[in-house]
């Protein structure tokens, strides 16, 4: 059974894609991603390994849905600014194909946490591949080229979300940043409440617990503006060591403004 939080985000995701008024295959793909039992079970077990076994923060269904939401927002802002995706630029696909690839990557990027933290982004590609093939076979029944293209970009987004490898598509770069933006205190609530003894990874929990909110909106100078609101300076670890690291290696960097705030103190501009 999905949690109320998951169901709420599912509704938001469907509404966001519906509002884009596209041809329909992106919405069909999203519906499969949100309803597939194997995806749900794998996301849930990835979270069990992350939280209970390793003591990390949330890497499960809510996180992967939140990353998907972040990615859709950013991709739409890019579109409104008149910037073409890599698939559009290369002439192999349209915006809807790019959107589908980004949603697939976002929803499946942390499945490899089932095996553990180390190299989980690469393990995720192995676990996700048969799921992607099954999904795309339903959507691109008469276009092998489209299936191969969307699968490739989705796998690039999954493999590159940690910033450990260089990505070359704008789509993959957006997934990378969308993942880094999910760092609010709700993501650290479960492992902190468990009262575990200090261990590797806990700096992520305590830093995330000070992040009050992350807003993704249209920027004044760049298409995407990211505002990070914190209750204390410990949140700067998340901003500088996690989010900034991912933005620095992202193909979307040139399109992003980044600001951080600690309560009523003066804003800190990074990008």
User: What is the helix/strand order?
Assistant: HHHHHHHHHHHEEHEE
Strand tally is 4
Give the biggest beta sheet. 4 strands, mixed
Distance between the termini: 41 Å
Give the count of helical stretches: 12
Q: Taking Cα atoms only, what radius of gyration do you get, to the nearest Å?
A: 18 Å
Choose one word for the global shape: globular
With strands numbered from the N-terminus, the spatial order across the biggest sheet is 1-2-3-4
The level of helicity is: 55-70%
Unreliable residue runs: 189-194
Structural class of the helix and strand makeup? Answer: alpha+beta
Strand content: 5-15%
Mean pLDDT: 90
Explained architecture:
This protein has a 4-stranded mixed sheet with strand order 1-2-3-4. Helix 7 (120-139) packs antiparallel against helix 8. The model is unreliable at 189-194 (pLDDT under 50). It has helices spanning 4-18, 25-35, 37-53, 61-80, 86-90, 95-108, 120-139, 144-159, 170-180, 189-193, 202-208, 236-248; strands at 211-218, 224-230, 256-262, 268-269. It is α+β, with helices and mostly antiparallel strands and 271 residues long. A hairpin with a 5-residue loop joins strand 1 (211-218) and strand 2. It contains 12 helices and 4 strands.
